[in-house]
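Cross-check.
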Amino acid sequence: MRSMSKKIISDDIASLLLGSCLSLPPASGLGYIILPLATDSQTAAVRYARAVCLYFGAAWCVAASAYASGASLWLALAVQCLYAALMAAPALLPGPQWLRGVMLLVLPSLPPFAYWLPLPPLAGAGWLFPGMGYAGVAVYVGMALAIVGCRNAGGKAPQAMMALLIVATVLAAGLNLHAYWHPPRGVAGWQGLQFRSAAPVPQTFEDAAQAMIGLADVVRGSSMPVIVAPENWLGTLPLAAMRSLRAALQPGQHLLVGGIHMHDGTLRKGVWHLPEGTFTPAIAPIPFIEPYPADYARTGSAIDVAGEPASLLVCFEASTSLPLYHLHYGTPVILVANGWWDTLGALSIQRSVARSWARLFASPLLTSEARP
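Predicted model, tokenized:
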């Protein structure tokens, strides 16, 4: 009995350490392909504890983000615990192990969880099967289940599972070589600005105006036809106060810049498109933290940038499963983020997850970020 308890504890510690590595760039989420192995215990409590430890380790970036953005240490840890408890819930399901494995992989990417839970397991599909889209997700899930079958199936099933693993591995290698030699065609002349800033989003009109003046100077020095600036860079600055920024644009030049706008009678965060003066609200702000409403009905809609369609992701959206329903095959992806608070590297994980989603749909990714 004691030896069994020690094994359970050691497995939980190993899951915690493994989970801590799963979220690390440059291939955040790739390791989730072995997640179904956490469901091989006959006892629901042991399965659940193992899965919770794995997700708790992976969710260090969730706690780090909450803490760095102003939450207390206890609140940040509570958020991390809640995340792990929710993500691991499918491990409690009765029935065959393959079903629990599928649910662990797929459930966090089904609406409405797809809009709320960061670092979903299916995000790893883009690292193995770039360019395959939804078929790549299916093969990724099948490969994960084949790993389980090699370990636990009886009879001749392990040999069949191993054959499937070999085929999937060869396919992944071929797709990655193709993606390396033939990367998605980017959009010529699009520039994503990268800023260093340890200051919060402008809280006053004066601060927002100062940020606009600085951005106008950068725009004047650029000859790129499309310029993208970070999330919330202009704060609540109204369109009427952006005259100098619009004047800084050359004829035919376009600027996308993050801001906060009273849209349809409600304060929303999103992206301004200048010189047109249109505003695109974010689809899924951070739930329970950001005071802006979601607009899930806009999932899948593209924006027009200088005559080219593009999929827009605003910060947190990129780290969830929203891109699975929002991106279009071969269409450029624009990610704007503002991690002025990020001293622990959580933004690099978000960027890595976004890159995996973009790879899955063979889409070029353009990022604009503010980092400390």
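Residues 113 and 304 are 28 Å apart (CA to CA). The chain has a mean pLDDT of 87. Passed to J.P. for a second look.
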